[in-house]
Specification:
The complex is a heterodimer.
Chain A: E1 13-22, E2 27-33, E3 45-51, E4 57-63, E5 72-77, H1 85-91, E6 97-104, E7 118-123, H2 127-139, E8 146-152, H3 161-166, E9 171-177, E10 188-189, H4 194-200, E11 209-215, H5 216-229, E12 236-241
Chain B: E1 4-5, H1 10-17, E2 25-28, E3 34-36, E4 41-43, E5 49-52, E6 59-66, E7 69-73, E8 77-81
Antiparallel strand pairs in B: 1-4, 2-3, 2-8, 4-5, 5-6, 6-7
The chains are: A alpha/beta, B mainly beta.
Chain lengths: 247, 83
């Protein structure tokens, strides 16, 4: 068929590191110059592959942190017993090369044409793909109302805090701190549960679309809680990641 | 180890099937439950990658890499429909 692109093979390619930005003590955002990047959608991820001198390889998936209109960036949290994240967060320097493939995924993806209000729920570094969605919303001039509920251990563990605190029209950012809150903290504390979701989530008749990303147990709790409130399962999109530094 | 979900094997699935598969719908051959591949239960750290049904825990798919070839077992799926 003329004009129809061949199905895209997913191939490994070499990217060059642009900037390495410190987000928190344990978290870095890495911007990447990818020569053959076909463009991405908000919420997608990519795979990174490291190869040791002896040929040993380790692969990990990382959510894309940037909007489709921006250069590719990933945000990586250092896991102390990790094989890949300590290298990415501590050793990687601008100009270094990194092997990756992507973009990946078509389910946990938001498009501005979807007119429903958004409920974004993040546990720890689960904020990363949701930040891509927020930036995409802003860059496309979307007026869709958003509520973001972001669970973090402490305030200094909040990723993109400067950006989130600046606020954007129509975006309501709600933090909950699970381990420690600063003196005078008037925000929420404790883990996300049904009571908090009842207060924060859009009422069921608003027909909101929910994106929930975080560690597996966090996602199970939140997704189960939203369905319990009456959200149809098909309107609760979930993405789970492995062992991590906390919600 | 925590189970992940089908998003975590988006790259592997794309490599095997040649296209985006996380939004495809899988139907469990054991209980008949159907849903997006992204919502299936995925275990990454066995000797292979194991995918189970979120409703009945039945075994749906297994992927194992052997000497550079990816071996794929889909016997637990009654159907796999593109979105």
């Amino acid at each position: 068929m003329a004009g129809t692109a061949l199905r895209g093979r997913l191939t490994w390619q070499v990217a060059r590191v642009g900037q390495v930005i410190s987000e928190t003590d344990r978290v870095r955002t890495i911007t990447l110059d990818v020569p053959d990047w076909p463009g991405h959608r908000a919420g997608q991820h990519l795979d990174v592959r490291l190869t040791a001198e002896d040929g040993y390889r380790a692969e990990r998936s990382y959510s894309i942190a940037s909007a489709p209109s921006e250069p590719v960036a990933i945000t990586v949290e250092r896991l102390d017993d990790g094989e890949v994240s300590p290298y990415l967060t501590e050793e990687l320097r601008p100009g270094d090369e990194l092997e990756l493939r992507g973009p990946i995924g078509g389910y946990f993806v938001w498009q501005p044409g979807d007119g429903r209000p958004l409920l974004l729920v993040a546990g720890g570094s689960g904020i990363v793909p949701l930040r891509s969605i927020l930036r995409h919303r802003e860059h496309t001039g979307s007026q869709i109302p958003v509520r973001l509920l972001y669970s973090a251990r402490t305030l200094p563990d909040v990723i993109y805090r400067g950006e989130l605190d600046q606020g954007a029209d129509g975006v309501d950012v709600i933090y909950t701190l699970t381990r420690q809150s600063p003196p005078g903290w008037s925000g929420r504390t404790g883990r996300v549960g049904t009571a908090m979701l009842t207060e924060v989530a859009w009422p069921v008749p608003d027909a909101a679309l929910a994106f929930v990303c975080g560690p597996t147990s966090f996602v199970e709790t939140v997704a189960g809680g939203l369905v319990g409130l009456g959200y149809p399962p098909g309107r609760v999109k979930t993405e789970r990641f492995g062992a991590s530094g906390g919600t | 180890m925590d189970a992940l979900d089908g998003n975590a094997i988006g790259g592997l699935l794309h490599q095997v099937f040649g296209t985006e598969m996380t939004s495809a719908r899988g139907t469990c051959a054991h209980c008949g439950a159907t849903g997006p591949v992204a919502e299936l239960v995925v275990y990454l750290r066995g000797p292979g990658t194991v995918v189970r049904c979120r409703a009945c825990d039945g075994l749906l798919m297994v992927f194992a890499e052997v000497r550079g070839f990816t071996c794929v077992d889909l016997q637990g799926l009654a159907a796999l429909d593109m979105a």
